[in-house]
Amino acid sequence: MADGDDKGSDLRGDERQQPPHKTFSDVAKAHRWDDFKNVLKEEPCAREGLIYGIASGVGVGLLHFVRNGRPVGAGNWAVGTFAAVAICAKQLCHYQKVHQRSKAHTLLEMQSKVATHVKGFEADQQDGDKSRGGK
């Protein structure tokens, strides 16, 4: 019976330490305004996404408030529109940047191939001139 008691105590002994609970104010105190400024500088499409998101969120929120007269519903629409448009604008900006980089890479490859062919053509011209007795 002592074995049964040991197994029972092992099953009940599952005590895991939980990470300390952080409140919103703890998280807000941990970050400075400069952190957000750096994100806007380091992430090229974040600024564009935020601008489009804020503008569209304010516009949709105001239209919803004028139409229905309920500030809570208008706020919900504004926040939802802000989030959706900001994410879509940021993704679209990233897609455009990747597309531009691939086009630039293709153009550089073509330019290097053309330069190689031109150099080969010029070398052939010079060899032809030397074989004909030219300078």
From TrEMBL:
Q: Where in the cell is it found?
A: Mitochondrion inner membrane
Note the superkingdom of the native organism.
Answer: Eukaryota
Q: What is this protein called?
A: Cytochrome c oxidase assembly protein COX20, mitochondrial
Q: Which organism is it from?
A: Coemansia erecta
A Gene Ontology term for the protein's cellular component: mitochondrial inner membrane
Q: Where is this region: Disordered?
A: 1-27
Arranged from A to Z, the UniProt key words for this protein are: Membrane, Mitochondrion, Mitochondrion inner membrane, Transmembrane, Transmembrane helix
The family classification in the record reads: Belongs to the COX20 family.
Instruction: Keyword check for Transmembrane, yes or no.
Output: yes
Entry annotated with the keyword Transmembrane helix: yes
Show the InterPro entries listed in the entry: Cox20 (IPR022533)
